[in-house]
Amino acid sequence: MLKIGIITGSTRDSRVNKQVAEWVKGIADKRTDAQFELVDIKDYNLPRYNESVPAVFTKDYQTPEAKPWSEKIDSLDGFVFVLAEYNKGITSGLKDAIDYLYQEWNNKAAGIVSYGSTLGVSAANELRLILSVPKVATVGTHVGMSLFTDFEEMSKFNPAPFHEDTVGKLLDEVIDWSTALKTLRVKEEVLV
């Protein structure tokens, strides 16, 4: 069965990001076509990215925190990133978490759930570009939520009901694409 990680995109103490990620997981857990896991980047305590270039390609990490992060991402077949938009971009914590790895991301699919004053659209577009380098295919359906209408006082998550249908479509695509890309990863393992 496919394993899909729902990855938080913020490490701030005052974040609302985890509320959104837990909501996505609650919707995902109603499905039977994949296993879903909340992957909180804050739990991995990754320091600012400072690895050598060869480590990214050889998985010979000098940073001790990178090894459990590597193992977690390697064990997953696809992802749903939950993004908070900061200054029209993704958070530095998420960028560092992505940069620590390369092979572990390869030939996997991802969906994006974002929020911000303008639905997190700029951050979602930035993440699509970033994920293209380690060969993560991002699906077309995007869930964008507003700090003004989907949160109470910008701190308590209270999504509009119609978002649940869009999350369902996003999960359909992530599962379909993850299934297809898994065959490519299996083929590559056989060739090695």
What does it look like?
The protein has 192 residues and is α/β, with parallel strands linked by helices. It has one domain (3-191): Flavodoxin domain (Rossmann fold), CATH 3.40.50. The chain is built from six helices and seven strands. It has helices spanning 17-28, 53-58, 66-74, 92-99, 121-132, 163-191, and strands spanning 3-8, 35-39, 78-84, 108-116, 136-146, 151-152, 156-157. The strands form two sheets. It has a five-stranded parallel β-sheet, sandwiched between helices. Strand 3 (78-84), helix 4 (92-99) and strand 4 form a beta-alpha-beta unit. The protein is globular and about 45 Å long. The two termini are 23 Å apart. The model has no long low-confidence stretch (mean pLDDT 92). Its main location: cytoplasm. Residues 3-146 form the NADPH-dependent FMN reductase-like domain. It holds the Pfam family FMN_red. It is found in: Cytoplasm. This is FMN reductase.
Oligomer: single chain
CATH architecture: 3-Layer(aba) Sandwich
Largest sheet: 5 strands, parallel
CATH superfamily: Flavodoxin domain
Biggest sheet strand line-up: 2-1-3-4-5
- The overall number of domains is 1
CATH hierarchy, class: Alpha Beta
Reading the helices and strands in chain order gives: EHEHHEHEHEEEH
The rounded Rg comes to 16 Å
Number of strands: 7
Indicate the overall shape. Answer: globular
The CATH topology is given as Rossmann fold
Strand content: 15-25%
Write the layout of secondary structure elements.
Elements: E1 3-8, H1 17-28, E2 35-39, H2 53-58, H3 66-74, E3 78-84, H4 92-99, E4 108-116, H5 121-132, E5 136-146, E6 151-152, E7 156-157, H6 163-191
Parallel strand pairs: 1-2, 1-3, 3-4, 4-5
Antiparallel strand pairs: 6-7
